[in-house]
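JOB MANIFEST
job_type = single_chain_structure
chain_count = 1
residues = 103
[input]
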Amino acid sequence: MEDVIKQIVDAEKGAEERIEKAKEDAKAIVLKAREEAKLLEREIIAAAEEKAKALVEKARLEGEEEAKRIIEEGNAEIEELKVKATNNFEKAISAGIELVRGS
């Protein structure tokens, strides 16, 4: 009978040891999963930041190109207005001379 009780006690001890080992293993698995999740999160955030920087840079370059185009169009319009003003001035001078000659 003592033998049977000893076997039961030993079996219970072995079961408790296996349970404790399983708990430790589970804690280690959870800890490793958390570490891997944090690493993955950092990688995702870094990739998102790089993409955001690229988008901002692209928008900046597009903005610069648009600004250059607008300035060039503005300068062309100014030159066109200068030519028209010069032509109008010359016409006005010619008309003034004709008026003076005609009177």
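[summary]
The two ends are 149 Å apart (CA to CA).
The chain has one helix and no strands.
exit_status = 0
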